[in-house]
Design brief:
This protein is an alpha+beta fold. About 20% of the residues lie in helices and about 10% in strands. The chain has 2 helices and 2 strands, in the order H-E-H-E. It has a two-stranded parallel sheet.
Length: about 100
């Protein structure tokens, strides 16, 4: 069951890959947070985590200009930001040649 509330579980891990595996092993995927001094790690781990919102060295990650939504059992789609209307739109491509 997905936990909503101020919870900070602590897990031991051997290396970066194991930490990502442990984090991604949940069915929930709304938000995740991690702290590091390594800028390269921010991009590697941030990309590898299967969550809709990822905070790197940040505790508050939700704001009106950022798309808000989860992955996996935490839902599909986004609300807020310029992406909030995407689920309600149908995109059409029209190619014109030789006018």
């Amino acid at each position: 069951e997905e936990t909503f509330g101020p919870v900070a579980p602590l897990f031991r891990f051997y290396d970066e890959e194991e930490a990502i595996m442990i984090a991604n092993s949940t069915d929930a995927g709304l938000a995740s947070y991690f702290y590091t001094r390594d800028v390269g790690r921010i991009f590697r781990v941030g990309e590898a985590l299967g969550f809709g919102l990822v905070g790197a060295n940040a505790g508050v990650i939700s704001m009106e200009i950022a798309p808000f939504g989860g992955m996996k059992s935490s839902g599909l789609g986004r609300e807020g930001s310029k992406y909030g209307m995407d689920d309600y739109l149908e995109i059409k491509y029209l190619a014109i040649d030789g006018i």
